[in-house]
Write a structure and sequence with these properties.
It is found in: Cell inner membrane. This is histidine kinase. It is a multi-pass membrane protein. It is a single chain. This protein is an alpha+beta fold and 453 residues long. The protein has three domains: 19-162, Sensor histidine kinase RisS, periplasmic domain (Beta-Lactamase, 2-Layer Sandwich); 228-297, Helix Hairpins, CATH 1.10.287.130; 301-449, 2-Layer Sandwich (Heat Shock Protein 90), CATH 3.30.565.10. The chain has ten helices and twelve strands. It has helices spanning 4-14, 18-69, 73-87, 107-120, 161-201, 217-265, 269-292, 305-314, 338-355, 416-426, and strands spanning 90-93, 100-102, 126-130, 133-142, 145-151, 301-304, 322-327, 333-336, 364-373, 376-382, 430-435, 441-449. Strands 6, 7, 8, 9, 10, 11 and 12 form a seven-stranded mixed β-sheet that branches. The longest helix has 52 residues, at 18-69. The chain is rod-shaped and about 150 Å long.
């Protein structure tokens, strides 16, 4: 269990794209650095701000006390009124029964109070309210009489406040924007490489060229290596197609002569029929090679799916061991190459006819259906045979693979479904094989839906 937990913990994060992973890591680093700097600045500013605040309050108290000491009775009253109206300073006598709340609720306040005690005397009281009236109150003594000085609460602010919050928000936003920019710049070459690799996987080698003149030396070397690999693979693919086409073409001539000589020189009618069937099988296998070696580029146009299906099943309607049912709309349009799509349907029908016969009737009951869904058309070609072992399903589309003997009568080259998959990829669609829940094999095609001409 302990070994499974780390992998389970990594799973959600591993699904995030490389851009967002890089962005989050850089953002966490930057935000952590900002918070660390913020705490450092606050710590460095704590002592100077506390001393400055205490000095300001002490100056106000000393100036107010000096002004009152040297003023006569009438002038003192006028002075107190002027200080209240002009400076926001209120001076009232301190009575023995006054109730107050000491301002010592945090480290900054305690440091200011201690500094004021040093400057004004140990008996100095700093309160946040006196007799229920909030404010910043400081006690002082004039000629033995106690007084309260009420001043602006804003002068007693520790480090932080709105200014620090605004600074933190601005720094965070700028850090996130910078993280997104850096992540984008880092991941752009990887995104281009991924796109080129996907294009090359689809067989489009010419569209998978990367820039070989980028400034970053490491990326430039990767791009050059990738382009050379793509060129070599394109040459290999071209040579392979040319070789298969050449071999298939060269085999046609001796096969034609062999067929002619068989018809003319073999007297036994049964032997002649068997030899002709073998030659026809060889000719069909050559056709499969040619289909598999076709170029990867096709021109897609709107095609009426029903017309292609009708053409493909026309020759099968007269066969005694095949029953074909079609269930689709008459005007269903798909983007495809009509000839290529015909080869796909024909291969699937032939595969179902050979290997999808019922064990009871010996007849291949084939059902073709199609339905439009969003931007796609889903086509299903299903037989009612015995199906395929689940562990062999993924191998059916591999070239030259043959399934178990119950489905393979050893008549084909093992290229039919491989040709279907390759052709569907060329037309921008997908191909999937599955066992039907009620028996038989289901071949599922997904084609791009087309609009009316």
């Amino acid at each position: 269990m302990a070994e499974d937990e780390p992998s389970g913990w990594r799973k959600p994060f591993s699904r995030v794209s490389l851009f967002w992973r890089t962005f989050f890591l850089i953002a966490i680093l930057l935000i952590g650095s900002i918070l660390a700097w913020l705490q450092t600045l606050r710590a460095l500013e704590f002592e100077p701000r506390a001393v400055q605040t205490a000095q300001l309050l002490a100056s106000q108290v000393n100036l107010s006390r000096a002004a009152l000491v040297y003023a006569d009775g009438i002038g003192r009253i006028s002075l107190i009124k002027t200080m209240k109206d002009e400076e926001g300073l209120r001076i009232v006598p301190r009575e023995p029964g006054d109730t107050f709340e000491s301002k010592d609720n945090d480290a900054f306040s305690r440091r200011v109070v201690a500094e004021l005690g040093t400057r004004l005397g140990k008996g100095t009281v700093v309160a946040s309210s006196v007799n229920g009236q909030p404010g910043l109150w400081v006690s002082f003594v004039i000629d033995g009489d106690d007084y309260w000085l009420q001043t602006d609460q804003a002068k007693f602010n520790p480090a932080g406040g709105t200014t620090w919050l605004i600074w933190l928000l601005v720094a965070t936003v700028m850090s996130l924007a910078g993280a997104a920019l850096i992540a984008g710049l880092i991941n752009r070459p990887l995104k281009e490489l991924s796109f080129a690799a996907s294009r090359m996987r689809e067989g489009n080698f010419s569209a998978s060229q990367l820039d070989e003149h980028v400034n970053t030396s490491e990326i430039r070397e990767v791009n050059i290596g990738f382009n050379r690999m793509a060129q070599k693979l394109a040459k290999v693919e071209q040579d392979r197609a040319l070789m298969l086409a050449g071999i298939s073409h060269d085999l046609r001539t001796p096969l034609a002569r062999l067929r002619l000589e068989t018809e003319m020189s073999v007297n036994n009618e049964e032997a002649r029929a068997h030899m002709a069937a073998d030659i026809s099988q060889l000719d069909a296998i050559i056709d499969k090679f040619l289909d598999y070696a076709r170029p990867d580029r096709v021109s897609l146009t709107p095609v009426v799916l029903g017309d292609v299906v009708d053409t493909c099943i026309y020759s099968m309607r007269k066969l005694p061991d095949v029953q074909v049912r079609v269930d689709m709309e008459d005007d269903l349009l798909v983007y495809a190459d009509e000839v290529e799509l015909g080869r796909v349907i024909t291969n699937l029908l032939e595969n179902a006819r050979r290997y999808g016969k019922s064990v009871h009737t010996g007849i291949a009951d084939i059902h073709i259906s199609a339905v439009a869904k969003d931007k796609w058309v889903l086509v299903k070609v299903r037989d009612h045979g015995i199906g395929v072992a689940p562990e062999q399903l993924y191998q059916l589309t591999q070239p030259f693979f043959r399934g178990e003997a119950a489905r393979t009568a050893a008549n084909g080259a093992g290229l039919g479904l491989a040709i279907v998959e390759k052709t569907m990829q060329r037309m921008g669609g997908t191909f999937h094989i599955a066992n039907s829940s009620s028996g038989g094999l289901s071949a599922n095609l997904r084609l791009q839906r087309a609009t009316r001409f």
